[in-house]
Design a protein that fits this description.
The chain is built from nine helices and 37 strands. The protein is elongated, with a radius of gyration of 31 Å. Strand 4, helix 2 and strand 5 form a beta-alpha-beta unit. The protein has a 23-stranded parallel β-sheet that branches. It has 458 residues and is of the alpha/beta class. The structure holds uridine-diphosphate-N-acetylglucosamine and calcium ion. Uridine-diphosphate-N-acetylglucosamine binds next to strand 1, helix 3 and strand 10.
């Protein structure tokens, strides 16, 4: 059974989030909530995905461009009113319509497929996906008759004391016969506590019309979580990260403390890589095999090869080859490229620069706008002075260059292969093959100075 069309409700203002960002664009494990919904329905191969937008319509539409068609709900008068906005687009359709909310990011395709199968089997006019909730607060409740048949859905705000005790909740996912959906919607009123047109009211209406309605209860309540506020957002993130981390562990990645490891959806990690707690891996990050990432490491949009040891460091848009050692407390910024077996030590910042094969930048250095060849040794405290306040300038360092500690390299400058700079130099001119550049004022020693020191004065 195939869902003919999918409608995603994403027009609400999400006022409980207290945010300037439209609710459905808030992220769960690095992806907007509505993206998760689209990803879950895509394998069902719907004819059309139609997203109802309203608050922040342009932002949501730009975000989903190419993945969905859109209708706009100008005023947010309720979920039933939202679906009514798709009437023009869907009215002619004879098939089924699957409806979901953009704020329920945790549903799996398997669960949705099971709902579709149940709907096809029973030939209901509508089948609602329900779940059993330990704590049903905030959800619509499924009211069943004495024969256990579904009678209606009642919103918490409209529920009687008895109804509030019901623990079977409406997940907000439904599959309807499309024609009957719009017939029922035209009869939905707004005579309720919130004065809204409720989509769930269509169940009662269809039943009254003599149609067969039904529910399919999924076993796993955690998939049904609706994110209405930041508390639920954090809870949804936790559930999603648990899922993601379990997947990596099953693929041979060793997570020392999976409850405190934050890996975005889509990050790739090779086997036998060991990741300590409090590591964050974000965006389009790809990590190879046999690496060690220690606590406090944060890597975003970077590519890491194999057998590296990255210790409590931050990497953004960086490329690290193999067998390097990085950190503690190194900072790789965009376009940092670290070649095989290189070493970056503590408090080293690299930006738009290549550190060549086996080269070492051990301590307290800034390497910016530079290309370093192989087996270069950069002494402690070296600064590549690349910026005059207006423009950036490049430095080229050849192979086997030895840069003395506390060298300032004022770009643009070229240090040829096997050249040397003397410690403490401020290098402004090129240094040729086998030359040493020394640029510092000579030391003078003053006699009998001790007694002139202020602290020696009585
Ligand atoms: C809704 C259901 C509730 C269910 C819960 C599951 C209704 C009336 N209630 O409640 O039974 O248990 O979801 O998570 O449907 N939206 C619009 N236009 C509107 C109003 C809402 O597009 O005018 C969208 C929202 O952006 C959201 C979705 O519909 O994505 C659900 O709306 P929300 O206000 O979050 O409904 P709940 O109170 O969670
Ligand atoms: Ca909701």
């Amino acid at each position: 059974m195939q869902a003919t069309n999918v409608v995603i409700l994403a027009a609400g203002n999400g006022s409980r989030m207290k945010s300037d960002l439209p609710k459905v664009l808030h992220q769960v494990a690095g992806r907007a909530m509505v993206d998760w919904v689209v990803a879950a329905v895509a394998p069902l191969k719907p004819n059309k995905i139609l997203t109802v937008t309203g608050v922040g319509a342009k932002q949501v539409q730009d975000h989903l461009a190419g993945k969905s068609d859109f209708v706009v709900q100008e005023q947010q008068l309720g979920t039933g009113h939202a679906v009514l906005q798709t009437k023009q687009a869907l009215a002619d359709n004879e098939g089924a319509t699957l409806i979901l909310s953009g704020d329920t990011p945790l549903f799996t395709t398997e669960t949705l497929q099971a709902l579709l199968d149940e709907h096809a089997r029973t030939k209901n006019a509508v089948t609602v996906l329900t779940a059993f909730a330990e704590n049903p607060t905030g959800y619509g409740r499924i009211v069943r008759g004495e024969d256990e048949m579904v009678l209606k859905i009642v919103e918490e705000k409209d529920a009687s004391v008895t109804e509030r005790r019901i623990q079977e909740i409406n997940t907000g996912v439904y599959i309807f016969d499309n024609q009957l959906l719009f017939e029922a919607l035209s009869q939905v009123g707004n005579d309720n506590v919130q004065a809204e047109y409720y989509l769930p009211d269509t169940l009662d209406i269809l039943r009254e019309m003599g149609q067969q309605i039904g529910a399919y209860q999924t076993m796993d309540f955690s998939e049904s979580m609706g994110v209405n506020d930041r508390v639920a957002l954090a809870a949804a993130n936790k559930i999603m990260r648990t899922r993601i981390n379990r997947g990596h562990m099953q693929n041979g990645v060793e997570l020392i403390d999976p409850d405190n490891t934050y890996i975005d959806a889509g990050v790739q990690i090779g086997k036998d890589t060991v990741i300590e707690g409090n590591v964050t891996l974000k965006g389009k990050t790809v990590i190879g095999q046999d690496n060690v990432l220690t606590a406090g490491t944060r890597i975003e949009d970077s590519t890491i090869g194999d057998e590296n040891v990255i210790t409590s460091s931050h990497l953004e848009e960086a490329l690290v080859e193999n067998q390097t050692t990085i950190g503690p407390y190194a900072h790789l910024r965009p376009l940092a490229e670290i070649k095989d077996r290189a070493h970056l030590g503590n408090f080293v910042e690299v930006k738009k620069a290549t550190v060549g094969l086996g080269s070492k930048v051990g301590h307290l250095s800034y390497v910016g706008n530079a290309t370093l060849g192989a087996d270069v040794n950069v002494g402690a405290g070296t600064i590549f002075v690349n910026y005059d306040g207006v423009n950036k300038f490049d430095t080229t360092v050849g192979d086997r260059v030895f840069i003395g500690s506390n060298t300032k390299i004022i770009a643009p400058v070229t240090l040829a292969d096997e050249s040397i700079t003397a410690a403490g130099s401020t290098i402004t001119d090129d240094v040729d093959f086998h030359q040493m550049g020394i640029a510092r004022s000579r030391q003078t020693n003053k006699d009998d100075f001790w007694d002139r020191m202020p602290h020696k004065k009585g």
